[in-house]
Amino acid sequence: MTEKIEFLKNIYSKFLNENSNILCVGSVSNDNKNVFSQLTNNITYVDLINSPLLNDSSKFTLIKIDTSLNYNTLINLQSYLKENTPDILLNSSKECECFDILKSIGYQIYDVSPVDNITDCTGPLSKEEFGYYSKNVCKGNFLCVSKENVKKYNLPTIIEGKTCVITCGRNDGYKEDERFLIHLTKMLETFDEVIYVDWNSEKRSALYEIKDQLPKTEKLKHFVIDPSIAKILTNNNSKVSACCGVLALNLALRRTDAEYVVMTAVDILPPSKKLLDNFIKTTNKNSFYTISRRDIKYEDIIEHKDNLNEYIEYLNRTSSPRYFPAKVTPNDHYSIFNCPGDFQFAPKNVWLKVKGYEEEMLYACFVDTNVQKKSVLYGFVLVPIYDIPLYHMSHKGMSNDGTSPSKQFFNNALDWVEYFNTYNMHGYTMISKNEDSWGLSETEIEYEMI
To answer: Distance between the two ends of the chain, CA-based, in angstroms?
Structure first.
C-alpha cells in the first residue's frame, strides 16, 4: 500500500468504517476508490442521481458529490437528505444556491480542504464564507453534516456575534501584577469572552495573584499548563521560550466558540466595547486584521488608574495613529508595521483555516508576521488598521536585548517569513506545517470560569 493511500485511509477512517454505505455521484479519483473499497464493501457509483436510486431502501452513511451539477443533484436528493441525514462530501461548484438547500434541511457546512480532513476543518461556514471559500480558499471539498452529527464528530461550533480575546503569560515577576490586573479588567469590559492561558509558572498561575481583585463576570476562562506538562509538550527543549506563546494561544483558539477572535498580549489596553463593535460592523468574514498600537507609559496608566476610563477617552481624543513600517526580511510584505501581533483580529473561521500559529515556532519573534503571511497564502485579505485607538503599556525589554525571559532564543526569520510557502504532500498543496491536532484539540484540558 502506498504512502498516499495510507494517508487518505487515515483521514477517511475518522468517519467511515466497514458498516458505512457510500454513494459516489460524479467523478471519483482512483485513490479515493481504492481507500473506500478498503474501508467498506458498500459503495455505489453513479454519474447522476436518478429516480430508481432515490427509491432504494438502503440508507447511505456518506454521499460524495463531485460534479458540476451540484445544485441539481442536491435538488433531487433533498427529500432523501432530510429524512436520512447522511454526511455529504461536496466538491462545490459556483452555485451558492447549494448553501440554501443544505441549510433548509438542517445541514451545517465545513471546509475540509484539501483532503476531506474532518479532524482539522473550518466552520460552520456562513453563506458569505461558503461563496468566498469556494472561489478563493479551498475550491471545493466541503463536509456537510446534520446538526446532530456536529457533536458526534467534535466539529467546531460558533456563536454568532460573540467576541473573544486570548492572551497568555507566566508568573515570573517580569511583569507587574497591577499591569496584568488592568489588562484583564479592561478586556473583560470589551469582550464577551476572555481566555487566559498560564504557561509554565514555577509558582502558582499569575492569575491567582490578582484573582480577588478581578470582577467576577463568568466570562474569564482560565487554563493552567504547569511546568511538568510544558516540558513534555516542548520535548524538554531548554531553548524554548519560558512562556511558549504559539502553544498557549493555539490551545485557547481551539476552545472558543466565538465568531470573532483577537490574539493579544498582557501589555495591551483594548478599544472600548463600543469602538470594537463599531469596528466589527466594518469588517468582512474573509479578511485578517492587525491593529497598530499607540504607546503609553505604564507610569501614566498607574497615575490615572482611579479614573482610567476618563484618561483613555482623553488619549482617544489626543493620541495619533502609529505608522511604523517594518520588514523582518527583504521580501517581507506581511509585517506591515512593527509588532503586528499586539492585536490580531479575525473571524474564527479564518483562524481555523490558517491553523493558528505555527507550532514549530517555539522561540521568540516573527510568529505574528508568519500568521499574517499564512492568511495571504490561504487566500484571505490582510488589512492593517490604524484609526482604532489601541494602547501598549511600556515595559523594560521592549527590544530584543535579552532582558525579557521570553526572548532568549529566536525563530529564524528567513525560514518562517522569507521562504515560508506552500509545499506538496501526496499530491496535495499544503501551507501550514501544524499537525491535525494543533492546539491540543484531541486532549481534554480542565479550566475554570471566573
So the answer is: 52
